[in-house]
Write a structure and sequence with these properties.
The chain has 147 residues and is α+β, with helices and mostly antiparallel strands. The protein has two domains: 70 residues, no CATH class; 54 residues. It contains five helices and four strands. A four-stranded mixed beta sheet has the order 1-2-3-4. The longest helix has 20 residues. The radius of gyration is 19 Å and the shape is globular. The model has no long low-confidence stretch (mean pLDDT 91).
């Protein structure tokens, strides 16, 4: 991937590995040129990305999603939409139903996804600290005695 990107970010959860690479922006004269560079990269690397994804999927049991950034443009090529079971009390369901009634979301599922994205945007620093703390706990666990 180092041949493709200046740098890249990898995000992993239970179901998916997302790889977002930064493409070089030098020589671009307008914002649409960055989008064009991303589109060209997507087409030119499709077969290689599929091969890498198959290897990772086989090794990890997770699907692989790709995206690219160039200058201020960003494009995700593939993403999973995974059903998540949740239990909500009436007051929480009313919030979702209000978002649907106001046409903010098409369904309760969309409304819940909208709420999660909103929290993610407004709590990014807190969530990053929490993730870092969880990684520290895992590091200590890994150093402990093995069963």
């Amino acid at each position: 991937m180092g041949d493709w990107f200046e740098d890249f970010e990898v995000v992993v959860d239970r179901e998916e590995i997302t790889i977002i690479g930064r493409l070089p922006a030098e020589g671009l004269d307008d914002p649409t040129a960055a989008a064009g560079r991303i589109a060209r990269f997507r087409e030119e690397t499709r077969e290689q990305r599929i091969a890498v994804a198959r290897e990772l999927e086989h090794a990890t049991g997770r699907k692989v999603a790709w995206g690219a950034r160039c200058a201020e443009a960003e494009k995700m090529f593939t993403r999973l939409s995974v059903p998540v079971m949740t239990r909500l009390r009436q007051e929480d369901r009313i919030v979702l139903d209000t978002l649907v009634a106001a046409s903010v979301a098409r369904s309760r599922s969309d409304a819940l996804a909208w709420c999660v994205r909103l929290v993610g945007q407004h709590q990014a620093d807190w969530l990053a600290q929490l993730q870092q703390a969880m990684e520290s706990v895992q590091t200590v666990r890994d150093q402990g005695p093995k069963p």
